[in-house]
TrEMBL record, chains A, B, C:
One of its GO terms (biological process) is ammonium homeostasis. InterPro entries: Ammonium/urea_transptr, Ammonium_transpt, Ammonium_transpt_CS, NH4_transpt_AmtB-like_dom. Belongs to the ammonia transporter channel (TC 1.A.11.2) family. GO terms for molecular function: ammonium channel activity. Pfam families: Ammonium_transp (PF00909). The chain crosses the membrane at residues 44-63, 75-93, 143-163, 170-191, 203-224, 244-261, 273-300, 307-323, 329-349, 361-380, 386-411. SUPFAM superfamilies: Ammonium transporter. Gene3D superfamilies: Ammonium transporter AmtB like domains (1.10.3430.10). It comes from Rubritalea squalenifaciens DSM 18772. GO terms for cellular component: plasma membrane. It is found in: Cell membrane; Membrane. PANTHER family: AMMONIUM TRANSPORTER, AMMONIUM TRANSPORTER SLL1017-RELATED. This is Ammonium transporter. It comes from the Bacteria.
Length: 443, 443, 443
């Protein structure tokens, strides 16, 4: 009777099927607890996916704000396209290539495919539930969270090539990068590939997402060349940002999204885990800002807002690999040093005439490597070594650089990657899109 | 003894009262599990309410960005007013009219009233708890989530009538629309009225919110007439958007809010349910963007940012009725086709000289109908038929159109609905508000 | 056997250690329920922390939008610095000074220190778990939520002193304010100090955060003096806001963040508690907007967007002290009256030549006092008296005013607090940062 009542109550929760074999009220209750835990774990992954989604508005805004007014529409158009095609490509190929059930080349490369089976059938298998009851989220939550991540890699490149890249060429390049290249290195670690087997540690992607994007960007920028008028025989001509409040909005939204990017990477709503990650993530971001403010004040002799903003991002990229293991006080060091690095790195790339309008190579590439090494320097995880961290981050960066270079160079040979000088001068908004971003000519 | 300890532990959770009648420790534990489930379900509704709230910033930003600079303050003022009056009106009348305990005309019309009883008394009945233990949220969560929804209907209209509507007339109209008209069609389906009894399916409101708003907008635009200078004897004169980064911010915030709009409409934190809805919602939004990019490139011969943005919204509107039942792959089709439809529809309304500055009629009205039909075309729910879906969406759209027309026309007769030509030329910001949106005249 | 199986299942949840002493399956299940409840409570605090974080973007945007174009970079730079230094200062001193384990002066002042013990050691004591099992969040969640709060106090000041304050002086002042002064009054109530012992009620900080910030701002403005050209012998010269869409974004983000600011202050995910707070908070914000719209229309003879926006904020500040106890209908009154107050207060401060470019003193200071009194006027909590509420809010405001005055005046004597007239005329962006916020000079 008691048992019957329990089943009735649990049926009301829509959880009947799981209880068919339950033999006692106690067991049923335990299963019910597991189910509620499953709900909260899953919900946090979904909220995190929404937070990572808003990073795409962050990227669009910071890139548009940091670049010239005349290229604003073009930048935003690219960002809209990337997040759209990135998610679709990830659904049709990338997800299964990154988390392979079969490898084409063992631990190195897997063939992707569309979401299959359970993922497309609401009835057959609603839960992504292992036999052991450890499931923390459904396959749909897993997919949508990872899809939001995937698109960020191509977005990082879009900032670096802004203001002179040919739209259609970039669209082809970005589609290949996000759909086919990003999942390869992803599978090495998160898909239990060769780096995972070496105990390489990259919690939320300092290397797998940020260094990947940053070094793909470096290759693309080398193929593309600098903006006209940036490097003259009279020295480097600064090209001023068009809209710093927009860039400010972008960076704060990226920071907000990072709570999902890193916090969601706990892959459950574990209280200690997620709160620890929130603290390390936020404190690294804040000290990144302070580090860059101090460094730019000393080096550039002024309190530079762009650098302060990039410093926050640098700190966030820096902590991303070890947000789960680096103690809070060490996170202050990780962030501060990332803030110093990003200012020096931006200055360095300017000096060697690598033209990166938003500092993406420094923020994501250089600080991505820094962050990956920090897991060995500051982290406390057994088995993590500086050597493997270095090997991993360089392997991923090298793969990103080489494949990005190859693809972008091939596109250059076939159809060109750069707008003509007249279009660049005029601005891509009018030249490519027939519409300026701002229209002020009102009475 | 065991039992006593359990009660002590549960008291610590502040959940004592529910356990007064519990006869065994097992039963108490089961109730405790139900209570924790209740907490998470309820929390998700609240987070969703916050997400839908931010859609109002999305609407304000996209409308201001798409219109002319000289009318920016006016647009934002209207949006601030709508969300404020919408929530207050919903509290004093709409909520109880939409979810009636008594009908004035059976299954068709109910008289509203202020929140009563439990909702206003923190002690008497803290929970919106049915006897069966199925409760997923408190009455306050229910109210605030629905209140945030309600205000969106009037906001949709505000974009379509922008740049020439008289402020006070619109304020009266919007108050009537959101408080008295929106709950009527709402009650037909979500208030268990006649459409619900016919197995009409509209999960989160492709018809009840979006088509309602879109066709109310169409009526208002017809009463109001086009902006001066838009349709000339030399053809259609495009009026350029004033601030596309602002519009971009608006659309991405709307997209973000849609995770709460659709995700919260699951009305619980059910893992499979919410994650399924996240995937269908996001993928339809993304393919909507791609569909509109492709279509506008072919039709308008350029990669149009405004169309890409409206395409994402169109895809989101399209999936809203069936986000819970349309399989993920079909969601790609729903979104893509919505993206095509919105471009053609915007072009069509321009051709027949219906002047809708932001494309609201196409995005919300036309794609709202499309989405409602998709539940029958792509969905898998037993009992849902194309005929009833068509009947439902046309009934709702017709009700919105006719009542909106009547109210707005009556206001036109009484006090006028349009600013005079001089004010329209000068811009409503200075004419109605005495303040331009941007002041650049600094040294 | 049964028991063994249960332990196995619970081990799968990673919750083994807590169960070592559990003697029966029933007890283990009850503990598992408590653990899941702990997860959801904790998660809500973290999500709230993220929501409060985004308020810093809100402040930056509203302040930049309300001020002149030429001071935009300076305003945003200050806001970035404040949130960074605020969190670091709170980690190194403020958190432990505000929630003291030992008092230096009993119930009045405690010495701070860095996060210690459990907070820095991931292994030793992962949970902030009291013996009674009542814990709702980890110490890290507690810290990061409170750290996000702390920085808001200094941010309130930054708006009031905008457009003429010397950057380095403000940076020193803000660091002292947020690190050393804010935790003192915080400890009086939330740290179980003398006001807490008197049954003073300030749920989420109408006094402790907002009146504190508002009256610190008043002192700073008095020391600093008005902007040149604001008060002339020909009367008050309005200085127009540079970017109202940016201000609109800022206010809506603040409103969004307030769901975490007040909602998170429930300190658990209690369904009735959080949903009640959502309703009172939102309705007070909405009626604040309506109250200010009506009042400004009557007083200023125009529908003023800035006032509508400040009215929403005023309503939110007004409900903050009593969001947990003031009934929903009374919240309409709290908000409406706050909306009236803020318009009259802004006008009043203008008249007595206190120059506050964003109305921070009125919104946060005056309405902070109003809100604190509302707990006695409209609230239903036993033990709360008008007398103690008045005593508490005046004590906090007086402490903020006096210490802010002393610190800022000392800085004025030592190094000056104001830029020179030439810099003020030119704008701080170019003068202090060498970079304008907007660069439009494209072909």
């Amino acid at each position: 009777m008691r048992k019957l009542l329990l089943f009735t109550a649990l049926s009301a929760l829509g959880l009947t099927s799981a209880y068919a074999q339950a033999e006692t009220a106690g067991a049923a209750t335990t299963d019910a607890v597991l189910d509620v835990k499953f709900m909260i774990d899953n919900l946090w992954i979904l909220v995190s996916a929404a937070l990572v989604f808003i990073m795409h508005l962050g990227f669009a805004s910071v890139e548009a704000g940091m670049c010239q007014r005349k290229n604003t529409v073009n930048i935003m158009f690219k960002n809209v396209f990337i997040v759209c095609i990135g998610a679709v490509g990830y659904m049709l190929w990338g997800f299964n290539a990154m988390y392979p059930s079969d490898w084409a080349i063992s631990d190195v490369f897997a063939v992707g495919s569309g979401l299959t089976g359970a993922a497309t059938d609401a009835e057959a298998s609603r839960f992504y539930l292992s036999e052991s009851g450890e499931a923390a989220y459904t396959i749909w939550s897993d997919f949508i969270f990872q899809a939001m991540f995937a698109a960020t890699a191509a977005t990082i490149v879009s900032g670096a090539v802004a203001e002179r890249v040919k739209l259609t060429s970039f669209m082809i390049y970005a589609t290949i990068l996000v759909t086919f290249l990003y999942p390869v290195t992803g599978s090495w670690e998160w898909g239990t590939g060769w780096l995972d087997k070496k105990d390489f540690a990259d919690f939320a992607g300092s290397s797998l997402v940020h260094a990947f994007g940053g070094f793909a960007a470096l290759a693309a920028v080398i193929v593309l060349g600098p903006r006209k008028g940036k490097f003259t025989k009279d020295g480097i001509k600064p090209i001023l940002p068009s809209n710093l409040p927009l860039a400010n909005i972008g960076v704060f939204l990226l920071f907000l999204g990072w709570f999902g990017f890193n916090g969601g990477s706990v892959l459950s709503a574990d209280a200690a885990g997620v709160s620890f990650v929130f603290v390390t993530t936020a404190m690294a971001g804040f000290t990144g800002g302070l580090g860059a403010i101090a460094t730019s004040w000393i080096v550039l002799k002024k309190p530079d807002l762009s650098m302060a903003l990039n410093g926050m991002l640098a700190g966030l990229v820096g902590i991303t690999a070890g947000a789960d293991t680096i103690p809070p006080y060490a996170a202050l060091a990780v962030g501060s040093i990332a803030g110093v690095i990003v200012v020096l790195s931006v200055t360095f790339f300017d000096k060697i005439k690598i033209d990166d309008p938003v500092g993406a190579i420094s923020v994501h590439g250089v600080c991505g490597i820094w962050g990956t090494l920090c897991v060995a320097i500051f982290g406390t995880t057994e088995g993590v070594t500086f050597g493997v961290q270095l090997l991993g981050t360089l392997s991923i960066s090298a793969f990103a650089f080489i494949t990005s270079f190859a693809v972008f160079y091939a596109i250059k040979l076939i159809m060109g990657v750069r707008v003509d000088e007249q279009e660049e001068h005029e601005g891509l908004d009018v030249a490519e899109h027939g519409s300026p971003a701002y229209n002020d000519s009102t009475p």
